[in-house]
């Protein structure tokens, strides 16, 4: 029995090695259930983030959090990833959701860039989405590990109390489907 187990372990390791050679998510920082994730640690406005993701990998779009399970995965992974890249400077990540189609009707944009669809679940922060005008683009609030959604001006700038524009540190997480092993 012992020998048999060893044999199985030896065979599984061979299989691992063969398949391990092909990276499941090339160029990605993380993967979860068939989706690859990549952090772009720069500051973007919302449209800039959309473009930056599209330029990263074919089929890549900004992050849309579709399920509670994906949300749980992202909470754990992103907390560590952000601490590593920015010493905690990056507190907001753009999400691929907006009410740009219809005012105050927030939706996820489809990953093919055409049309949108409703949330499967939502995680709006307190008093979100904002009732303020111009707050049309969605953002993931990572401050204090809140992991809630806000609506923000798509420019990434807020006006301070003196009416001066202040940039918000909005970085981008891109997602794209895991390439098939058999392609
Ligand atoms: C984009 O995706 C949506 C949702 O999956 C689909 O209904 C629509 O037909 C797609 N559009 C194109 C141009 O592929
Ligand atoms: C900031 O102030 C400018 C100038 O008054 C205004 O045009 C802009 O809409 C304001 N931005 C937001 C997010 O309120």
Automatic annotation (TrEMBL):
<dbReference type="Pfam" id="PF00059">
    <property type="entry name" value="Lectin_C"/>
</dbReference>
<dbReference type="InterPro" id="IPR016186">
    <property type="entry name" value="C-type_lectin-like/link_sf"/>
</dbReference>
<dbReference type="InterPro" id="IPR016187">
    <property type="entry name" value="CTDL_fold"/>
</dbReference>
<feature type="domain" description="C-type lectin">
    <location>
        <begin position="32"/>
        <end position="154"/>
    </location>
</feature>
<keyword id="KW-0732">Signal</keyword>
<feature type="signal peptide">
    <location>
        <begin position="1"/>
        <end position="20"/>
    </location>
</feature>
<dbReference type="InterPro" id="IPR001304">
    <property type="entry name" value="C-type_lectin-like"/>
</dbReference>
<protein>
    <recommendedName>
        <fullName>C-type lectin domain-containing protein</fullName>
    </recommendedName>
</protein>
């Amino acid at each position: 029995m012992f020998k048999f187990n060893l044999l199985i372990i030896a065979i599984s390791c061979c299989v691992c090695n063969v398949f391990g050679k092909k990276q499941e998510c090339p160029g990605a920082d993380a993967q979860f259930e068939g989706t690859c994730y990549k952090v772009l640690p720069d500051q973007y406005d919302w449209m800039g983030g959309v473009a930056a993701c599209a330029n990263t990998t074919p089929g890549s779009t900004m992050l849309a959090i579709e399920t509670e399970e994906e949300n749980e995965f992202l909470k754990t992974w992103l907390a560590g990833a952000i601490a590593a890249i920015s010493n905690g400077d990056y507190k907001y990540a753009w999400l691929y959701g907006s009410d740009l189609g219809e005012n105050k009707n927030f939706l996820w944009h489809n990953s093919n860039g055409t049309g949108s669809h409703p949330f499967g679940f939502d995680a709006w922060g307190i008093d979100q989405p904002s009732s303020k005008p111009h707050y049309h683009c969605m953002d993931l609030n990572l401050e204090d590990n809140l992991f809630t959604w806000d609506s923000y001006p798509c420019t990434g700038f807020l006006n301070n109390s003196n009416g001066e524009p202040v940039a918000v540190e909005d970085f981008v997480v891109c997602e794209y489907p895991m390439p098939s092993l058999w392609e």
